[in-house]
């Protein structure tokens, strides 16, 4: 007569099996995808920092320009300050008309812009 069968347990010192893992299975494609997203996010942050520096340089230049006595401030100053405020609020780079992202190249040309080229053309403005 055979003896009692014993289940073999792995990993736990008292012979009790570990509970089934609740962690999802992660394959290498998922890891590469996450890595790619992180690279894009880091590039986005670097571009935002570049645009912030550009805006701050333009603000410094606008504030330091000599103005006639009857002019209180460079009109660009308020546009630049508004762009920095949008950046602080996390809405910088989105068109205030259609809500789409403004292309990085457009922002480089005019970092204080608040509408995209398409909406500017539709409104009859030349680039915001």
Short description:
This protein has 128 residues and is mostly helical. It has 4 helices and no strands.
Q: Largest beta sheet, briefly?
A: none
User: Mean pLDDT, as a whole number?
Assistant: 81
- End-to-end gap: 91 Å
Amount of helix: 40-55%
SSE order, as H and E?
HHHH
Query: DSSP strand (E) fraction?
Result: under 5%
Low-confidence spans = 5-12
Rg calc: 29 Å
Question: Care to count the β-strands?
Answer: 0
How many individual helices? 4
Structure commentary:
With 128 residues, the chain is mainly α. 50% of the residues lie in helices and 0% in strands. The chain has 4 helices and no strands. Helix 1 runs antiparallel to helix 2. About 6% of the residues have low confidence.
Considering the chains and any ligands shown, give keywords for the structure.
128 residues; mainly alpha; 50% helix; 0% strand; elongated
Describe the secondary-structure layout.
Elements: H1 28-64, H2 75-89, H3 104-109, H4 117-122
